Amino acid sequence: MLRNIVAVWMIVVLSSLCLVGCSDNDQQAPPAEEVKTAEEYKAEAEEEITEENVDDELDKLEQEIQLEADL
To answer: Fewest CB atoms less than 10 Å from the CB: which of 27, 40, 43, 66?
Structure first.
């Protein structure tokens, strides 16, 4: 008799946990970050880098690389 009561109790508890655990939460993933393609980077570089500012742009890139290397 006690075994039947415990078995029924376990079935009720497990069923209620399944129902509560499977409830539909309206959680949405955060918006994905836009990633540029290689072509977009190349087009942007061609617009920004001119013969007059090549040395400055190279210095900026070297500084960025050094900062990332230090991390």
So the answer is: 27
Mean pLDDT over 37-59 rounds to 90
Among residues 40, 43, 45, the alpha carbon closest in space to that of 57 is found at: 45
What's the angle, vertex CA 16, arms to CA 12 and CA 18, rounded to 5?
120
Q: Where are the alpha helices (DSSP H) in the chain?
A: 2-21, 38-48, 54-70
pLDDT tens for each residue of 9-25: 888 888 887 777 755 55
Query: Distance between CA atoms of 29 and 10, rounded to whole angstroms?
Result: 35
CB of 57 within 8 A of CB of 49?
yes
